[in-house]
Request: fold
Amino acid sequence: MKRMQKQTRAMGKRTMASKLTYVKKNWQLYVFFLMPALILTIIFRYLPMGGLLIAFEDYNVIKGVFGSTWVGLEYFKRFLSSPDFMNYLLNTLKLSIYGLLWGFPVPIILALLLNQIRKQGIKKKIQLLIYAPNFVSVIVLCGMVRMFLSPVGPLNKLLGISTNWMTMPAAFRTIYIASGIWQGAGWASIMYTAALSNASKELEEAARMDGANLLQQIWYVELPAIKDIIVIQFILQAGNIMSIGFEKAYALQTDMNLPASEILSTYVYRIGLLNGDYGYSTAVGLFNSVINVILLIFVNWVVKKLNDGEGL
Amino acid sequence: MNGTRKIKYSRTDRIILGIAYVFLGVFVLSILIPLIYVVLASFMDPTVLNNQGLSFHIKDWTLDAYRRVLENDMIWRGFLNSFLYSIAFTVISVFVTLLAAYPMSKKEFVGRKFFNVIFLITMFFGGGMIPTFILINQLHMVNTIWAILIPGAFNVWNMILARTYYQSIPQELREASAIDGATEIQHFFKVMLPVCKPIIAVLALWSFVGMWNSYFDAMIYLNDANLQPLQLVLRSILVQNTPQPGMIADIQSTAEMAKVAEQLKYATIVVSSLPLLVMYPFFQKYFDKGIMVGSVKG
Amino acid sequence: MWKKSRKRVLALGLTFSIIIGITGCKKEEQMQAETNPDTPVSEVQFPLKEKAELSFITSAPATSTQNPNERIIFKRLEKETNVHIDWTCFVADQFSDKKNLALAQFGNLPDGLFNAGMSDYDLLRYAKQGIIIPLENLIDKYMPNLQAVFEKYPEYRTMCTAPDGHIYSFPWIEQLGSGKEAIQAIGDIPYINKKWLDYLGLEVPTTTDELEQVLIAFRDHADDLKKEFQIDGDVIPMSFIINNGDQDPAILINGFGEGYGDTGDHFAVTDDGEVIYTTVQEGYKEGIEWLHKLVTEDLVDPEAFTQEWSTYVAKGKNHRYGLCFTWDIANIDNNTDYVMLPALTGPTGVTNITRQNNSETSGFDRGRCVLTTSCKDTALAAAWIDQMYAPLQSPQNNWGSYGEKDSFNIFEMSTNENGEEMLKHLDLGDQSPVEVREAQSVNGPLAVLNEYYGVYVTQPGDAKWRLDNMHETYLKDMNSKYVYPNVFMSIEDTNKVSQYDTDIKKYAEQKKADWILNGGIEKEWDSYLDKMEKYGLSDYLAIKQKYFDQYQQSLSEENK
Reply:
């Protein structure tokens, strides 16, 4: 017993000397392989973190990060007491949460449905088709949405009315989420489909022999097969609730739907880059990032508890 | 074990299956119909489209919109730029990622945990829009193509995928090279890469598509109209409602301009989306393998 | 193990910070333009001996060339001055965002912005950040033309000077009449289709009720009108673009309540000198209710709440409007079929026209042109800009040019009574003035003074038509004593006002559109007033009042 422990310890812990030897011997790994990525990471990911100081200063472009006057938590106080900010925060959350609620099950359902198709030929063709929208760019997607929903567009013609959906804040969320599902659900189902095709065919057969019907088969065999992936996907998406992307929301905004379509990232862009309020917008951005991290940790913890310790 | 199998379905099963097919059908239709509509609308005479909607009389069909779009300088410039940027980005990104993932995939790599942490942190936390913008300015990369090619070149998620893939390759390969006296670099280029074609394809495709479809970086960093990628040209036309001057310059009246502008949008969508939509089926076989690898590790 | 990692991470972190620090400090070498150069004036006489280059950002309308050097005005200027301009041109519709982004790219700034489109707030904040430079020294040394303008009208110099004593921008000045007769007194003129009125045997309405009846008549006889005049598309009794400057229908509600109606920036001044906000007045409420009534009666274009200029014009060119709003009807349809709708008397007998604010000093745009801190040769830039203020140059930059082959010219070069060169406006025929000007004009900084008419340039035909008609139709009903003057506030106040504007103006305009389209103003009025208060309306008004009182005082002191 003791001898085994000693052995593992000897193998596990390497001395400083042996490590240096490794580095010297394998210098190529460090200098050639790792260096480019490392440099990129340092310059474009870590240096900007230093720029977060701007969130606490009255940033002046000429004076730079270290020459500008310190204002402490003034910006944080400002946006936490601003009703508009709360609105944008809510917009961000609602968009993410509803998007998650509605959008999360769809790829799973698609994968399960596809799995029931026996003819491989048809299955492949359908797959090809539902993957397609993923390759349509955000701009094109939003362009299509705008054209279809315009007062003289096909949707209105079909319904016989003339509503300008893009100007209605109440409609924004639905438009955003529905178009998101349209574009992404098919592609997202790949992951589940791949896992399902790994699922043991024998287990399925056995279930059938035992007289299980389709629903039971899905519940007891197929779903558990992809449970791990579902969990991980969920954690990742839930943890990213606050970092909902800029590009699509910005492309779908109109002057009149801003009360619902202005989210934190577009707000940061507007007041930061367009309005030159660098300090304030960096503070908002920082707030966003921090909440994001906290959320991720929280969701991971919750899921771990629910899932017997299986998490990220 | 593929092909059609004979399975006895109970009655309830058949009903459920029926419902399932209906749902699937609805979803598939919901994808097809808008796409087909866009294609059809791009051929229609604008007045007819505006007043009646789609019509199938041949006389209402015209290639005018396509002529205007395909003759337009800015569209072609956008295509060219996007193509150049996407290729360049793909090369840089895939190269950097594949390289970095290699040492990270070795269990005995000194500092592995350390670098892992360094990289992982960047996935969840960063400087944000403004500090990054300021940095790019300070580096004098603004209004140059480097502003969109370099900062995003290394993607940690992609590195994780590549790393996982490397780990699925048996150790014997490396040992064999070592016996032949190959250095890591030689082993990597002569032995590893040929074996890694699937992951290279996946990464390349994702990088290319990612760059091709994005517009934010170009929007904030590129001022010169000549540097604009396709998506920004499209944004002007489709989102901001400003048709390219060249496309409507020959039309005298503003009324006519507005009408044609609508139709131009459909043609523009078709022309700009066609390349990717046509390309991607060829890469489909690589997805499944790549995704599987990624999903297993997670 | 963990501890060692943490130590390493910390070490790296420190290295990072040092690197950041170094990069941060490196910025001291940032270009700082010389605001009081000692270049002798003789060195910037045109044409220069050696070709020089300047870089500018400007804007151009989407329907005209995006390469300013293709315009005949700049071609001639380059020949005359031997200065080549490297232009970055943005489409006018997208200019504001692009300009802000461009100015945020502080490592890559041009020498100046030719069509800067800067608000007071922009001027002050960019000045504070050091992105744009003070110009008064340059004006005094290198700009005789602009100085001449300031000498004739010292109030313009005052208006250009910021509260901190500096001048940060070159102005745009276009005088066409003055005081109540200034052409800017009314922006959104309502044009009613006289042709249709005559056809239906109706009189030009003078009250709100009469207008309603007329619009109903348009609606009910739509098919007849369509057939009679062979109109392509449906008849639209009334159209506008809500909240869009001269295309907004606010002028219709001047007859409600006390008669203040609504102005472009929603401010008005009572005859007692009190500054009020139009969109919280009882009269405004009643007016909006009435407008909503018109909507419910199907008298209003459904696209009026979302359409853009090009769509608005497209329908107008198809002669579909009974009543529409704009600066000059010739830009939308033609000016023979329409007449200006006089001030409508409201249900209580009130008739009034509220003039636009800032109109007493007629056409004046403060933040038209600026120079940035990256400008190496400020003397040259100032001298070049001064060319724009030459009496024969300003009208061209503003309206268009002469003698361009294969193109529609705005002017021909002629002579005045003294035999000197004078630009004579050519007849526009049935071209729309805006479109032909856009092709040749370059805007930017310039000054067209009342004294120029008849000496250097004739009055533009459409402006004259508009002025004369305006005087005839509206002068008698301009009952208010005051308009809000053009004041340049301190940066703190400008900042506050800018924030208030974002909240209050946006909210007011959003509700305005909402209530006209969907109704509900009665129900929501109280909570609306509360929200306005919460947004800080009282404080907003107090700031505006302060500057108004200051201005009035300085006027009376001048007159002493």
User: Anything to note?
Assistant: Chain A has a mean pLDDT of 82. Chain A touches chain C at residues 42, 46-47, 49-51, 60-67, 83-84, 151, 162, 164, 166-167, 254, 256, 259, 273-276 (CB under 8 Å). Chain A has 16 helices and two strands. The first strand of chain A starts at residue 57 and ends at 58.
